[in-house]
Design brief:
Residues 182-192, 476-486 have a biased composition (Basic and acidic residues). The chain is an all-alpha fold. It has helices at 2-16, 22-39, 52-68, 77-84, 87-97, 103-117, 126-138, 148-164, 176-185, 234-242, 248-262, 267-275, 279-292, 300-305, 318-324, 328-347, 350-373, 378-394, 398-409, 425-433, 439-453, 458-469, 533-545, 563-581, 606-616, 623-638, 642-649, 662-677, 683-694, 707-737; strands spanning 486-487, 490-491.
Length: 739
């Protein structure tokens, strides 16, 4: 009570007294603080019962006022006094001792406000960055400490200052090995018991120092650097400690500070961060812990549709989450931390990003997720595949995406062989799951691959399909006189095509516009090029549209299921794919036959083999499976790679013996369909009824015989229309960009 009265009286006297010059006023407040320690004998009274907080605030106000009255960059006498008399060093000592109780809190606040309010660069001064570094070490020592809030505010302002001038981070890297070498080369050793004078031979004017010359610390406050946990990058270590705080707000702030530090472009800082701190362990261990907290069984639809949450923004509502579905809170926590890892790696300096992403692969994907994906329990496979699908969908950083893909598919890019498909057990297992006995697992795994195909990662396509097509050995390169004779420009067994009203879309007025992205499109194959581009498009498109016999078609009897819908979708999707593939070297014609190794045996690759096998069974598979198989194949057909285009969309390629293409697979399906149509009474009316039921135009009524076959026919017709639209868009894109 007496101290509060004294403080009030002092303020009254100060208000009535004539104003002193700033430096005298500054010195007065500092001496008032030091005199407290000389005169007081009661060190148990909290600092808030003294005048110390008031004097510190006055000192800050004077420094701010002084800077405002001077030209930019000019150091005033008050700041000179603070630097020369090592006031920050003294305050650090008082804060470390926490004398009087609560002093550490006051010191942290003073440092934070000083760095935040003063515009001129302070950290280059040895008498600033040295005590700052020491104070950094005090942060995060005790979890749930009463000073946590002040600690995180202080650490974040330091991080912000380093972000403004990244080179200053070298002051905070304590490479003791280099210091020993440097001192040894000078032929002199420092006496560790010598007092810290604050002087440095490399110091410039006003005590400024070079970060590379002065990154050492007074050993009195430093922890041992013999272990990884007591790292040489104490700023990171303190933030890592605070990420374990029970206070969620402190955790988010600490994560923000780490995000700033990993983005610094200094190579030395990136190396120290990944090699001498526990950042990699924090990211991966917490990711693994959140994953293990998930229920063993979850509905894939819940995993797919749960709202996306940015890290640090998820709001806890346990009652609402539990009412939605079991495990929702755990799932959101996992996805939120995954988002943080992804964003951190995205922002990180390039070499640090690679190391962090590799750690996620080795310490989370391989050690935690792979056993879940390789298990035999169908429930477990379904849940883990759905989670993996969600992970792939959410990852946006290039480095983490690359490591995720390497984990799933391996790093191989050489030609695939039938004997080598088991070389990577996880890749083999996932592709096999596309043809699993469980339709749910098949659909979920096909969705997984569809998600992968839409990611901006060339290795996905190279590993799954392109490496098998690189030599074009699916073609038989016979001289023209050895090939089968053509009738009217078509093989002798081709259907005699009639004019179709659908081809009104081929008129010049309806040609699609051709912006720059269309230059990615492959040109028409030279083996059957015609002077009339429209004739070429007509042939290719008509080949797909006329594959399904008229008696097996039903879309023309239902409004809104025309070919034009697929044209619009194909145009948009092809534009999107060209945007993704633009940076890859895919332009140009297919590799010339004379440069191809046509004698090597062709293997379509494990992935295409499974897709073609499933496509061949389209008349005997569930509707949902067929939709997913054709969806994946259409994504592949949209890709603007010349070999993939030729193999999937050219009906006229001369296949080598024993080889199959997408077109040949569909031809076999149609041949089988022709044999089966005549065995089903009232085939056409039943087909139309099934289509209307699928579209919701007819209510579910009596069961219909052969419904799986009828649904398969409908998917087949729609898929052929989709392939025709894709071929149309790609050929016209190529024509519009060719000279």
């Amino acid at each position: 009570m007496f101290s509060k009265f004294t403080s009030i009286l002092q303020h009254a006297v100060e208000a009535l007294a004539p104003s002193l010059p700033l430096q005298e006023d500054f010195v007065y407040h500092w001496k008032a603080i030091t005199h407290y320690y000389i005169e007081t004998s009661d060190d148990k009274a909290p600092v808030t019962d003294t005048n110390i907080p008031s004097h510190l605030e006055q000192m800050l106000d004077i420094l701010t006022q002084e800077e405002g009255e001077r030209e930019s960059g000019e150091t005033g006498p008050c700041m000179e006094y603070l630097l020369h008399h090592k006031i920050l060093e003294t305050l650090y000592t008082l804060g470390k001792a926490d004398c009087p109780p609560g002093m550490k809190q006051q010191v942290l606040t003073f440092y934070t406000k000083l760095l935040g309010r003063i515009r001129q660069p302070l950290l280059p001064h040895i008498n600033v960055h040295r005590p700052v570094q020491k104070l950094v070490r005090l942060c995060g020592e005790v979890l749930a400490a009463p000073t946590e809030n002040e600690e995180i505010q202080f650490l974040c302002i330091v991080c912000a200052k380093l972000k403004q001038d990244p080179y200053l981070v070298n002051f905070f890297l304590e490479n003791k090995g280099k210091r020993v070498d440097a001192k040894g080369s000078e032929g002199a050793k420092e006496d560790p018991s010598a007092p810290d004078t604050g002087q440095n031979q490399n110091a410039g004017p006003e005590g400024a120092a070079s970060p590379t010359a002065d990154n050492e610390e007074d050993s009195s406050g430093a922890a041992s650097n013999t272990t990884k946990s007591n790292s040489n990058y104490s700023l990171v270590s303190s933030l890592l400690n605070l990420t374990k705080s029970p206070d969620g707000r402190i955790v988010v702030k600490a994560c923000e500070g780490l995000m700033l530090l990993v983005s610094l472009p200094e190579p030395a800082a990136a190396k120290c961060l990944t090699e001498n701190t526990e950042l990699c362990e924090l990211l991966t261990d917490r990711l693994a812990a959140f994953y293990r907290a998930l229920p063993q069984s979850m509905d894939p639809l819940d995993i797919e549709t749960v709202e996306s949450v940015n890290w640090g923004l998820d709001v806890y509502n346990l009652k609402e989450d539990a009412a939605a579905f079991t495990g929702k809170r755990a799932l959101i926590s996992f996805l939120s931390w995954l988002d943080y890892c992804d964003q951190l790696i995205k922002e990180a300096q390039r070499t640090a990003a690679v190391v962090l992403a590799r750690a996620v692969r080795e310490r989370f994907f391989v050690s935690v997720m792979e056993p879940q994906l390789m298990q035999t329990s169908e429930v477990g496979i379904l849940t883990s595949t759905a989670l993996l699908n969600r992970i792939i969908r959410q990852v946006t950083s290039d480095a983490l995406l690359q490591e995720t893909v390497y984990f799933l598919l391996g790093e191989e890019t050489g030609p695939e062989t039938p004997a080598g498909i088991t070389q990577n057990p996880l890749r083999h297992r996932l592709i096999e799951h596309c043809d699993h006995l469980s339709d749910e697992i098949s659909i979920m795994t096909l969705r997984l691959f569809e998600q992968l195909l839409q990611k901006p990662c060339e290795h996905v396509l190279q590993n799954l399909v392109l490496r098998s097509l690189s030599e074009r050995n699916y073609c038989e390169n016979k001289p023209q006189d050895e090939r089968e004779p053509l009738e009217n420009g078509q093989p002798h067994d081709a259907v005699d095509l009639e004019e179709d009203p659908l081809f009104s879309d081929l008129s010049p007025d309806n040609r699609l516009s051709s912006p720059d992205w269309l230059s990615c499109s492959p040109p028409p194959s030279t083996d059957h090029a015609k002077p009339d581009g429209k004739t070429e498009v007509h042939k290719v498109v008509n080949s797909f549209l006329c594959l399904v016999p008229d008696e097996a078609k039903s879309s023309y009897q239902v409004e809104g299921t025309g070919y034009d819908t697929y044209l619009r979708d194909a145009h948009r999707q092809f534009r999107d794919y060209c945007g993704i593939c633009q940076r890859w070297d895919w332009r140009g014609s297919p590799k010339p036959f004379e440069k191809c190794n046509l004698d090597s045996p062709f293997f379509e690759g494990h992935f295409l083999k499974v897709l073609f096998d499933r496509m061949g069974r389209i008349l005997d598979q569930p509707y949902d499976v067929n939709l997913q198989v054709t969806s994946v194949l259409s994504k592949l057909a949209l890709l603007p790679h010349p070999h993939l285009h030729e193999y999937l969309l050219d009906p006229y390629i001369n296949l080598a013996p024993g080889c199959r293409s997408l077109f040949s697979v569909i031809v076999r399906v149609v041949g089988d369909l022709m044999l089966r149509i005549h065995r089903i009474p009232d085939f056409t009316p039943k087909l139309l009824l099934v289509r209307k039921r699928l579209l919701g135009l007819e209510p579910e009524g009596l069961s219909i015989d052969h419904v799986t076959l009828l649904e398969g026919v409908i998917v087949l017709e729609e898929f052929c229309k989709e392939l025709a639209a894709i071929a149309f868009v790609k050929y016209h894109a190529s024509a519009s960009t060719s000279p």
